Amino acid sequence: MSLKTPSPLLVASLLVSVLLIVSLGPLAVAQEATQPQVKVHMLNVCAPSADEQKEIASALARVPKQPLFAQDFEVDRGRSSLEESPNFLQPAQGAQVSEDSGSAVWVRIRKEFSVQALFSTVQYSFSVDPKTMVETLVFHVRDPKDLMELTIEDSASAVTSPAAMLSTSTPANRVKLERFGKSSVVLARCSATETGPAPDQSAYEPLFQNASSIVSNYRTLLGAKQTVPDELARIENPGITKPKASPKPAPKPSAKKPAAGDK
Description:
- The protein has 5 helices and 7 strands; from the N terminus they run ααβββββαββαα.
- The chain is an alpha+beta fold.
- It has a 7-stranded antiparallel sheet with strand order 1-2-3-4-5-6-7, with helices on one face.
- Helix 2 runs parallel beside helix 4.
């Protein structure tokens, strides 16, 4: 039995393959070694640390109670698919979201602060879907260094009307700090789950109460109680316009009494 001698072409191909493996092996290892490590930060929204609580308290304390607004402002309204809702309509963790393929109607109010050291604008939004109403208040920092924006959110069931929700002080259920170059700080109301009861959040109640009072105050300052129901009505009935004030009737000329001696 004789063995066939491999052809020169096959030998050359094998040599090239071996050389490629030997040369590319260290390069692949080097690339794996130089790839940046991905760090995952887990946010404990139910029980933030003591330092995070101080940051939340400091940001809430710096919200002006009686702000001076500039003349610039913005009022928007619209309807969005629940699958493609704007960022400011994203619900908080634990909030109920309709599973129907329906839509959410929303109203947004934005105003600028004229003279403030920290915040430049405030944006208020109110959204309604078939199951939930969400109220969101966002303060944007004028010169972001550490803090970028502060967000406060509350929600209620859609079994009531938007006007009824706006007439009451709905408790805040989420406070979020967006930080520059750092992970966010979040405090949210947490409910019971299938694996355990609701956590004890009594220590954070002062923060929730402060956030709730801020939303209630700015709801009034921005005129949301009147603007939101009016704008939502225009979404459902596009033909609705503001009623024009009826002109006041001209005063009737008073009858002049004849002077003595006149006929």
